[in-house]
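Same chain as my last thread, 378 residues:
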Amino acid sequence: MGNEASVQQALSRFLQPQALDAHRQRVCRHLMNCRTAAMGGLQWQCIKCEHKQVQYFSCRDRHCPQCQWRAIQEWSQQQRAHVLPVPYHHLVFTLPHQLNGWVQLHPEVIYRLLFKAVWATLDQFGRDPKRLGGQLGMTSVLHTWGQTLNQHVHLHCLVPAGALSADGQWHAARSTYLFPVRALSRRFRGLMVSALRQAEKQQQLHRVTRPGEGDHLLGALMDTDWVVYSKPCLQHTATVIDYLARYTRRIAISNARVVQVDAREVTLSYKDYRHGPRHRRMTLAGEEFVRRFLLHVLPKGLMRVRHYGFLANRCRRARLAQIQRRLESPAVPKLDDVQQGSDEPGGYVCQICQQRSMICTSIVVQRQPKPLRQERRC
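reply #2:
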């Protein structure tokens, strides 16, 4: 990694593994070993200038800020291949921050209910005969962070502006206005609070509630407005897909946003959307930066990206072909072959002569990584 500031450097300096569960310890070990001798790698030599360099393997952990480039590109290509020739809508459903404590203790339950409540909300609106009268399609991506790494749980949804009726007809949205946001917010709030009450009764939230506490909080949340955002993507559907793709395999912050890591603090850049947006810098104590970063480690096995309705994996190909015929547009194209090679967009390029002339000469044996431990600092 060199001397550049990075999430890896901050974890190596400020992580306190004894306070973590086994899953977060495993994730941190992956991130700290990524692209180091602990992972092993390949020895390359330039056939033009004879420069030698080692390329260490990546950890491929979905939380790693320097991995998954190819996976992101593949996902983006897949979604672009399935785009219909209709307007799309970008919707965002946000959980109130009062539920952040529950999310930290029961993330697997809250995230599952969030996906379920959002789809139930949109599905009900889509099937309403007074609206679209059919089945919607939805691609959703879970985000758990804001620009300053604080917990901000929300679901991004990309929805085609139309529905497929039971008799195979395509019912296009009548305008660039999909559904009323205030009505969506109320329906989402009601379904989510009802699901949380049911989960509490079934003892699925046993770590967070005492008798009466859950009812008090959920009752208060029913009296507040929940945030739902909706915007048509008339000409920029591919841009939204690329935006969502960046977060399908990565965590809350990229290395490019880590400005400096010193003996006690971490400085990061962020966008202040309340004023512009403007680019600002924030300095956090090292331990606080690590704490915020680890808030966004997902439970093992949880799917961050999900597809619903006529975009569900089990029926997507057949339903999209049916819609394409109704729209009299070309069939869904096949995916292009993804470029094979490294995990980097540029391939294997010599650092000296900048030519794509590197050949692999040997394998670098994986070294035994050091166990996670808290380093002593003066």
